[in-house]
Amino acid sequence: MTRVLVVDDEPQIVRALVINLKARKYEVDAAHDGASALELAAARHPDVVVLDLGLPDMDGVEVIKGLRGWTRVPIIVLSARHASDEKVEALDAGADDYVTKPFGMDELLARMRAAVRRAEPVAGEDGSLVVTDSFTVDLAAKKVNRDGTDVRLTPTEWHLLEVLVRNAGRLVSQTQLLQEVWGPAYRTETNYLRVYLAQLRRKLERDPSHPRHFITEPGMGYRFES
């Protein structure tokens, strides 16, 4: 069974989520503040975390950073905050998705299922290790190595790399990349892609100004070539 950690200080939201999740055969733990959330995560090892940003003892972004210090568990932010810079901050801290309150239960459940699927280990599957002449991507271990040295990627850089690598040789549209990495609210923010692709090229390409692996298809999207 999939274990969910719900973190929210609004009792009615927690109650609704617990009822709906248990009805769908999820195991559920609930925390009403950040400190309890971090303790429960360490003790119960959830498969996915649903996290409100507005907690009474600390900002939800601090909880994300605390979790990311030791776990890659999928984190779905659930918040009434609508400002794009706050969403970006949460995603850059390591959140996997962002759902704005008020929300539809079906949409949230779909986002959870997708996040859990993406987090499933791929060890043993063909293609879990991708080797180029410049670097190696280990999808199972979530690591990138270049010239014998591990390359440090931010959570957002890794997520973008992972989507491209899993679609190697295929054009991935700008809209698809934005939706998978940043969420549906960012489907037109193409400047994000330019910035993050430039960062990946600087870290991984031998000649970032003439990329061999991260190819731009002007006006359409990007393609990864091994």
Task: Walk me through this protein's architecture.
The chain has helices at residues 11-23, 34-44, 60-68, 84-93, 105-119, 155-166, 174-181, 190-204, and strands at residues 3-7, 27-31, 48-51, 75-79, 97-100, 129-131, 136-138, 143-146, 149-150, 171-173, 214-217, 221-224. It has 226 residues and is an alpha/beta fold. The protein has a 5-stranded parallel beta sheet with strand order 2-1-3-4-5, with helices on both faces. Strands 6-7-8-9 form a 4-stranded antiparallel beta sheet, with no helix packed on it. Strand 4 (75-79), helix 4 (84-93) and strand 5 (97-100) form a beta-alpha-beta unit.
Distance between the termini: 37 Å
Uncertain residue ranges: 122-126
Could you tell me the mean pLDDT? Answer: 87
% residues in beta strands: 15-25%
Order of helices and strands: EHEHEHEHEHEEEEHEHHEE
- Strand numbers in spatial order across the main sheet: 2-1-3-4-5
The tally of strands reads 12
Briefly note the structural class of the backbone. alpha/beta
User: How helical, in percent, are the residues?
Assistant: 40-55%
Instruction: Report the radius of gyration as a whole number of Å.
Output: 18 Å
Total number of helical segments? Answer: 8
Shape: elongated
Largest sheet: 5 strands, parallel
List the helices and strands and how they pair.
Layout lengths: L2 E5 L3 H13 L3 E5 L2 H11 L3 E4 L8 H9 L6 E5 L4 H10 L3 E4 L4 H15 L9 E3 L4 E3 L4 E4 L2 E2 L4 H12 L4 E3 H8 L8 H15 L9 E4 L3 E4 L2
Parallel strand pairs: 1-2, 1-3, 3-4, 4-5
Antiparallel strand pairs: 6-7, 7-8, 8-9, 10-12, 11-12
